[in-house]
Amino acid sequence: MGNRLTQIATRTGDNGTTGLGDNTRVSKDSLRVHAMGDVDELNSNIGVLLCETLPPDVRELLIDIQHQLFNLGGELSIPGFELLKPEAVAQLDAALEKHNAQLPRLQEFILPAGTRAAALAHVCRTVARRAERAVVALDRAETLKEAPRQYLNRLSDLMFVLSRVLNRMDGGDDVYWKSERLARSGEAS
């Protein structure tokens, strides 16, 4: 990987470019920089979620996810490099299976609401979806490994599941959407 930063205000980006990990310079509005920025924003939002009271296993999982997202960001910053391993995707699959098993089946759509921790998990879910879209767009322009796209896809699903887990932490529940169409169809039966 490139040199570690020893100075933050380098002024090298004043011309609208930024340096990648392989020392090439690209426009700050390039697809690669968009993807890197969305992954960074996702990691920052997970950091905010970690400020909340969480079950210990969820806390440990989120901390590991932050490290994996840093690997993902590093991989995106060095074209052709691989830092995020398929095992990271498998870890999310296992976490999804574990946490999904303790939840009741969804009967209705739920709102991104409830406890503060659950609402923050929903924010992470939506940022993960945006990061995934940015990685898909980059992959169309330049070939990427599969793990980054798969990781973000699984992570957005996991953040949805964790929002449901966090809403139940102190005996709460999901916040259900009050669909007028569904309410009308219920009246007719």
Strand and helix layout:
Layout: E1 17-19, E2 25-27, H1 31-49, H2 56-77, H3 86-101, H4 116-141, H5 146-167, H6 180-188
Antiparallel strand pairs: 1-2
Helix pairs in contact: 1-2, 1-4, 3-5, 4-5
Structure description:
With 189 residues, the chain is mainly alpha-helical. Helix content is 60%, strand content 3%. It is built from six helices and two strands, in the order E-E-H-H-H-H-H-H. It has helices spanning 31-49, 56-77, 86-101, 116-141, 146-167, 180-188, and strands spanning 17-19, 25-27. A hairpin with a 5-residue loop joins strand 1 and strand 2 (25-27). The longest helix is centred in the C-terminal third of the chain and has 26 residues, at 116-141. The mean pLDDT is 89.
Briefly characterize the structure.
Helices cover 60% and strands 3% of the residues. By secondary structure, it is mainly alpha-helical. It starts with 16 loop residues before the first strand and ends with a helix.
